[in-house]
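Per your request, structure below.
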């Protein structure tokens, strides 16, 4: 059964996280959480982060948003194997249109999917110089399989909702948790839900992300040593990219992050400091309904915060 924080009426846009096991919908306005709803999803609606039953999901969303009196504008999050994220280093380009053309040209080689089958977006993450002193621009490029996006949007529209933005769950995760993070080192953010989402960020800039193959067993226990190996591989891949910073620590979040001994296992296997995130970042968890698990709402919170970005 859904639980909702009280609110004074629909306004703003909702960050909507479809974890696979559950959905979370969060609205932020005036510097605080205005509403927060979560509900378990029926079996078979989602698989590995993708919508496989749009009709059922649409019916579930319609009921949840009606019962919670939530705004109809939604910002959607995605995380699955149909998404590719790459960091590109390009000659310094100031004009946005010229930069977009250069990104699309380079993406055709860097992304192993036909560009006419994907939704492509990018953002500038910094400028620098190469080894010869030539000015460079660094961008993060995201390509998502269009058919995957269409199934998600179909379900949302069936529920009478208006998708006003689509974001990576990893970007939302960093947005929710990176407040006050130092800019001179990288952090690994690892969100353990039905999908294990990994992001590596410097400050609030997410520079590398991928969903991990590591899964929990039937009792929800995550193998810390298998997870550590996936994290090590991800860090190695990140460090092979241009303009990287040393990784300082691992930040754990998500409903499956509180397993006894997990932090110690990861710290031992990786040699890095491992900390548990405050699941709502700087926001007061008192705004959530009694009995609601705040760890369900981290990604949805970050998606809602994207409305102000």
């Amino acid at each position: 059964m859904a639980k909702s924080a009280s609110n004074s009426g629909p306004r703003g846009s909702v960050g909507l996280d479809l974890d696979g096991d559950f959905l979370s919908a969060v609205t932020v306005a005036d510097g605080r959480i205005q509403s927060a709803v979560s509900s378990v999803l029926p079996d078979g609606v989602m698989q590995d982060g993708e919508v496989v039953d749009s009709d059922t999901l649409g019916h579930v969303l319609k009921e949840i948003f009606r019962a919670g009196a939530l705004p109809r504008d939604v910002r959607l999050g995605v995380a699955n194997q149909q998404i590719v994220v790459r960091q590109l280093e390009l000659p310094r380009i100031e004009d946005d249109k010229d930069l977009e053309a250069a990104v699309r040209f380079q993406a055709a080689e860097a992304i192993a999917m036909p560009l006419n089958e994907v939704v492509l977006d990018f953002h500038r993450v910094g400028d620098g110089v190469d080894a010869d002193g030539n000015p460079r621009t660094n961008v993060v490029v995201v390509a998502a399989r269009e058919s995957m996006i269409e199934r998600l949007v179909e379900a949302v529209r069936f529920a009478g909702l208006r998708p006003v933005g689509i974001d990576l769950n990893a970007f939302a995760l960093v947005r929710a948790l990176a407040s006050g993070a130092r800019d001179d080192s990288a952090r690994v953010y690892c969100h353990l839900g039905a999908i294990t989402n990994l992001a590596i960020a410097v400050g609030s800039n997410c520079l590398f992300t991928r969903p991990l193959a590591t899964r929990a067993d039937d009792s929800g226990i995550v193998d810390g040593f298998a997870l550590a190996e996936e994290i090590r591989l991800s860090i190695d891949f990140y460090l092979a990219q241009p303009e990287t910073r040393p990784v300082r620590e691992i930040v754990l979040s998500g409903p499956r992050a509180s397993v006894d001994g997990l932090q110690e296992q990861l710290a031992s296997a990786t040699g890095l400091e491992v900390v548990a995130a405050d699941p709502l970042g700087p926001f007061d968890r008192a705004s959530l309904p009694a009995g609601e698990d705040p760890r369900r709402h981290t990604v949805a919170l970050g998606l809602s915060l994207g409305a102000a970005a």
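The chain has seven helices and 16 strands.

Regards,
D.
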